[in-house]
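dude i think i finally got it to work??
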Amino acid sequence: MSQRTDGIPEVDAILLPVGAELHALELTRVREVLSAGTITEVPGAPTWLEGLANIRGDIVPVVNTARAFGIDGAGAPTHIVVADTENGPVGVAASGAPRSSRLGPRTGASESDGGAGRHLADGLLCTLLDLDALTGAP
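look at this
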């Protein structure tokens, strides 16, 4: 994270398309971006859990933020962004190719639990994700 000349911190992030919306993860938490591949459904899991993915021998839960935030029309995940949380790595499903960007100042609060605020990135409004809150990490 760097500072702008007006003292407001800038956040480098990965932008994830989720249907018609954009979500963002702080770049410092991101491990890698992968094609979605096989995600195994977990019966009885919370609705926000897309399933589990085997990533280089590690079993990683994959969060579906479209379900968590009630976004319609996101479709099947095409990519997974693996990020670090308090409880270990978590994959976040994206419905299109993620890309890097620098977030502008916070423009407002998130409308959903698991969101850390709304920001402008490349002229588009996005929700910065708080994966620890979304996944219930202490």
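The two ends are 23 Å apart (CA to CA).
im so relieved honestly
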